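INTERNAL AUDIT FORM
Audit reference: QA-55
Scope: verify that the stored structure record matches its stored sequence.
Auditor: D.O.
Record contents follow.
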Amino acid sequence: MFQWLNKPIDKLSEFLAPRKKLLPLIGMFLIVANFVLQFLPAGLVRESTLLLHFGLVIAILGLMLAWAL
């Protein structure tokens, strides 16, 4: 029934299993990018903390997946 969803999840887990540190590193990169971008002139990217929150979610998800895999 959910075959269309199972195949991409299986491929993603096979890709991430040997690369357990990839998602936390991407999350930390997004958090650092948010810190650096706050020193730019005013703009939408500087005003929002989207990269910070997205990086935190990615890093936590990566740690949880690394623990499970």
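Auditor finding: record pair retrieved intact. The mean pLDDT is 85.
Action required: none
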